[in-house]
Amino acid sequence: MIDYRLSNKEVIRILKEALAAMEIKGYNFFRIRAYQNAISILDNLTVSIYDLWETKRLDEIPGIGEGLEANLNELFKTGKVVEFEKLKEGLPDGMFGLLGIRGIGAKKSYKLAKAFKLNNRENSADKIRDLAKAGKIRTLEGFGEKSEKDILSSIEQEKQSKNKKERILYSKAEEVVERIISYMKNSGLVKNIEAAGSFRRKNATIGDLDFPISTDNPEQVIKYFMGYPEIKEVIVQGDKKASVSLTNDMQVDIRVCSPSSYGAMLQYFTGSKQHNILLRNYALSKKMSLSEYGIKDTSKDIKEFKDEISFYKYLDLPYIPPEIRNGTNEIESALKNNLPKLIEIEDIRGDVHMHTTDSDGINTLEEMIEMGANLGYDYIGITDHAPSIQSRGYGTVLKLISDKKKKITEISRRLNKPKILFGYEVNILADSSLGLPDEIMKDLDYCVASIHTSFNQDSETITNRLISAIENPYINIIGHPSGRIINQRDPSDPKWDRVFKAARDNDKILEINSQPDRLDLTDDLIRSAIDWGVKLMINSDAHSLDQYSYMKYGIYNARRGWAEKKDIINTYPLNDFLKELNVRNIS
Ligand code: DGT
Ligand code: CA
Ligand code: CA
Ligand code: ZN
Hints:
Layout: H1 8-24, H2 29-43, H3 49-54, H4 66-78, H5 82-88, H6 106-115, H7 124-133, H8 145-163, E1 168-169, H9 170-185, E2 190-193, H10 197-200, E3 205-206, E4 209-215, H11 218-225, E5 231-237, E6 241-246, E7 251-257, H12 262-270, H13 273-285, E8 289-291, E9 294-296, E10 302-303, H14 308-314, H15 330-335, E11 350-351, H16 365-374, E12 379-385, H17 389-392, H18 394-414, E13 419-427, H19 438-441, E14 446-450, H20 459-471, E15 477-478, H21 496-505, E16 509-513, H22 523-532, E17 536-539, H23 551-560, H24 574-581
Parallel strand pairs: 4-7, 11-12, 12-13, 13-14, 14-15, 15-16, 16-17
Antiparallel strand pairs: 1-3, 2-4, 5-6, 6-7, 8-9, 9-10
Helix pairs in contact: 1-2, 1-5, 7-8, 12-14, 20-21, 21-22, 22-23
The protein binds 2'-deoxyguanosine-5'-triphosphate, calcium ion (2 copies) and zinc ion.
One calcium ion (CA) binds at residues 197, 208, 210, 253.
């Protein structure tokens, strides 16, 4: 028998449509909320829902009740769910084409689709856009001029992001970079090669790849590069440069130069463009002009540089790390000899946000702890998604927690390192309440609170949700504070200044989440959090053994946010760390 191997994205879309139908048909509030929570848990899985179903592990995900499990079973077996089809009966199909659009929830989609008789999801967004342009939306009850304008801009944004080529995640680009560099080095012709551009600056996402290459034999190098097996199409080929697109649709630009001028070439192609502009202006004030070939001053000849250090030195500047070449105030800071001493991966002593098979992780508690020990960490913390009292019952949850605590205590007795902390990742629910009651949280070592649902509430509501979690005495860390998933979900939009102030005043830690598609807080928010005096930490949020290594992406992101060792509390020795985190019950 064939199964329907649907992607997580497709499954979530189908569930969200059913949820919208429940809302329209006035289902019980608690049922809707439970369903919403379950969808968001599924939405946050990094493993395939289909694979979990196929290996009969769906019931291990807390928050997925029997009903939903049966729905998924039917979906993967038959490609549809009869209950959902019934739910959607009588609803205009056009409403489902509006659902993903920012600011348009179930009720609005329904109202719009019904009022304008939109019976086709394929074109309903286009029709609503035309209606908004014609000023027809505002005439509808419950809509006004402002909401008409908001709807128009949301639809146009959505369109744009669909047409725009997606930027690729850093971690994905990394694999391509490694393959290209090892291929090029194999030629025996290459002296220096690096991926410059946004990749070298460790951007969370990469537009295209830029490789300056030094050699004594430019023609041969270009020729050799053209033999790279992943090339799909040659865009430009010159004697010292080439641009190609790869089979995975990434574009690669290479520039070839002599080893004696590699420094200027690397500097130029590392950018950012804005940094280069500022640097050029600064150089002009010293009567020098910059280019990818070197520096010209009052004398006629161009001065070449074999590396970047000598290039910056010639400009009377200390070396500026690529991660902060963003064109803000890095040159000013460099001139004052005031550059940050950026955090490094070696500074990290522990990782306290991770999941096991007790929630959506794929390795057991024992395996995750052993890995932490192998990495030489001084401390780790286990934070599965908190089990839901609503679906499991209070007694069961208490028992679950006390069993797990015993298990951890037992393992701890056998190990002198790492110190193992026991907590949960607790949902910050739509109404600002938390997924676990205080009396349970207070007996845990610490808790991470995160938003996993209702991201598109208005700014004020999101702000209040974050702040009420920050003010809860049993919450120690706010996990992935903006909730963005790169290329999938925009960051939510709280009043960050109020969030930062609350975190600082309540002595709470904000997380820099290292998952390559989160990197959240984002670099610019890291910088302002530090300015506010907020303490931060970098966690892997590992859902498997190999994801411990995601820590490095969090480090890159922190470096882009100008973070130093002192700003990141999981660089501190154990006792200082426990104090900064305000850990409970620790002997
Ligand atoms: P991306 O590819 O969109 O992720 O970002 P980048 O920064 O890698 O940008 P890209 O590939 O267009 O250019 C690579 C570097 O080349 C850029 O960071 C700085 C330099 N560059 C490119 N265009 C200009 C320009 O018009 N002026 C200056 N000064 N530098 C430029
Ligand atoms: Ca680039
Ligand atoms: Ca480029
Ligand atoms: Zn997590």
